[in-house]
Structure prediction request, 364 residues.
Amino acid sequence: MEIISTGYAYFLMNMPIPKAFAHFIESNEDTWSLQESAENNLGSFPPRGREIFLPNEYYGLDLIVKKFIGIDPAKPLKFGLPHGVEIGDAKFGNVYGYRINLGTITYNNEIGYQNIVKHKVPGRRIYIEHPFLLLLEMMHSLNLLSQKAQREATLFFPAHRDKTHNFVNKKYDEDLCSKLMSRREKEGEIEISLPLLDFEIGRHKKYESYGFKVVSSGHRNDPKFLSRFINLVTSYKQVASAEVGSHLVYSAATGAKTIFWDVGLSLVQLVDDKKSLTAPYEIDSSVRELLGEGQIIDKEVAIKLLGWRGTPPAQISWQKLYRSSAIFDFSGFVEQEGENKTLSVPRVFQRFVARIIKGKIASS
Prediction:
């Protein structure tokens, strides 16, 4: 195996990001400069509002796909993008593409179905690479993932909370800190990763009070979120979490050593939405085969879960998806809702009517 000199590796890691990629890829150096005062420097990002399906904008997924396809970043996509990994039929599934389930990784199939209904996204799906893999390909091609200095610490991901999600276990963070303190005696230094939404409600202060350094990938509306996430997870000796989440699959797909810690904390998550139900945080037994205590998630398994088919992502497949989605958007199609099938009114017509109604309300 070729040995890359330390000086040359540093040059590769810190080379300027080409202008065409600069709006959604961040250098490793910039990622770490932000962490010195993550609470103040990561900022807040309002939705750009260009996408028909707003979650397409999460983490800059739409920009990644548009760059890969080679279309104007200002043009909206006519299909939904996955911002997570889904578990279906009591196992991980890789269902992405046109009119996909917009739900993130979940072990409750009802949650996935509710997301389809909530976002008015029918269950027509196409198997194609997750945009996260497209980003990895781009960063590899730019030599941004060459040899990196490793932090002698474990990066740990607690369960996500933010302003709209809460835990029935009110002492979750405190209990988790106690569990991690005992783990630290065995595993060595542990650092915590929280999204910026959790910084805004002050969760980071609890972890810092126990002596844990807290880092962040920032706000989900920040187009550089995923490249920053990649820079973070690939800088640690290992990545760990006691919670089921897309972060585990994403991390493992980068080649970072990714491990599941079962710390023994039960969790019930509440969503502040009258239509939402309390969802017990239970991991299905078949999922446990992949996420057992101390089990390392294999990189090859992770990239397959993200739609990898053994060959580099094909631009032509995404271009066909883009063209066909425009046709369906204009013509309408059959939607599956439970056991019933209904004919969809063309989306373009729905948006036209919505604009007229919105205009009348604004003028009244």
Remarks:
- Residues 1-12, 87-123, 274-282 have pLDDT under 50 and may be disordered.
- The first strand starts at residue 86 and ends at 88.
